[in-house]
Design a protein that fits this description.
Length: about 180
């Protein structure tokens, strides 16, 4: 069983899903099929903007408490500096103990993906956990868990031959925590 997203995280936190406007709209429509949940918020943001007044407002409107920020499939399309600025911003604004869960492309795996518009140097991190840890520490966040997509596929689909061979191998998933002051 993975400890990447422990159940206790969800029960004690507000959850904020961040993505592009169209993706957020789709996610909100899909979530209506589930039980209503007042602990989940959706916020369309563009991480290449380098300023997120809507996010600052959302965080200010929440009672003091932990937040889990979730970004799925976002970081490969954001410029390297944009995501660094976002992590610095969230590390300064989130309540200590809050978490960020996101996936990223591994450096060397489809590095050109996402290179359009304002994204000239798409965000990538190396395979090495010590380098991933150092990057996030430099942004004021502590890496609490990392799982490469290959390991996730093997764990969830141990007999990969039934599904056409090796699984997804270009990404990693991380769980970060806003360090205590």
């Amino acid at each position: 069983r993975s400890t990447l997203f422990p159940y206790t995280t969800l029960f004690r936190s507000k959850v904020l899903e961040c993505d592009q406007q169209n993706a957020i709209h789709t996610k909100q429509q899909l979530s209506k099929r589930w039980k209503p949940s007042d602990y989940v918020g959706y916020l369309p943001i563009d991480l290449n903007d380098h300023a997120w007044p809507e996010l600052a407002h959302w965080l200010e409107q929440r009672p003091v408490g932990k937040t889990l920020v979730v970004m799925e499939g976002v970081s490969p399309y954001v410029d390297e500096n944009g995501i660094r600025q976002f992590f610095l911003f969230t590390a300064a604004k989130l309540t200590p103990g809050s978490q960020i869960a996101y996936d990223f492309k591994l450096r060397g795996a489809n590095d050109a993906l996402g290179r359009v518009g304002r994204t000239q140097k798409p965000f990538r991190l190396p395979h090495a956990i010590d380098e991933v840890t150092a990057f996030h520490q430099g942004c004021g966040l502590q890496l609490t868990n990392m799982e490469q997509s290959t390991d996730l596929c093997l764990r969830l689909l141990p007999d990969q031959t039934k599904y056409g061979g090796p699984g997804f191998s270009e990404d990693a998933l991380v769980l970060l925590e806003r360090r205590r002051a």
